Amino acid sequence: MNVTAVLRSEWAKVHTVRATLAALACVPLATAGFTALACATHEPGAGAADFDPVHSSYFGLGFGQLAALCFGVLVVTGEYRGGALRMSLAAVPRRGLFYGCKLAVVGGLGLAVGTVTGLVSFLVGQALLGEDGVGLGAPGALRAVLGCGLYLGLIAVLAAGVATVLRGPVAALGLLVPLLTFVQPILGTGSRAFRVTRFLPDAAGQGVLHATPWAGLGPWSGLAVLAAWTLLLAAAGWRALERRDA
After folding, report:
1. Which residues are CB-contacts of 137 (< 8 A; sequence separation ≥ 6)?
2. What is this structure's pTM?
């Protein structure tokens, strides 16, 4: 079976399952929706000297990220229900080809939807910021839009890798949601722990959304750290798939 055929098969598995489509659709809806709520309460002209209008457009990303995590997890764990994985591996005996194409579809869809999410959230946020809003030509604005797509695509692949190791949606989301949603925001950027937590996947990757200097990693170094996490966990998933029976 060639790569194109396997990619089509993996795409068919995604767009014929309502749960995965719903999770994917919730990425832009949640991100732009919560961003709109936050920016609508902003008083034009009242921004502090360090106010970052670009980053304000991504207030809702944490909520959209939850949907991206669910998407990556559901695409993988759906294979473990009803013996579907055995059927998939019977059709595609080369596990590396099967796994690689699945991650390619997850990452490609995450990137595409993430980029749309980045653009919509930016435009909605800036419109609601009034006179404090900026355009796509502002320093760091276009980078944030494209970076949002890269961030969400990598997060979806990372989630798929973890789900391949743990096999169950409850176990995978039970690990990913607290680690990528609560740890860094609760500890904050002013604590000593931030010296460590800034290297977590979410804190590192979201540096690309900042147009002004902040306490975390730089935009591209942060994305590189997130990519390293993603590669590591995707490799762990591949090893688990190779060593275990279907």
Report:
1. none
2. 0.93
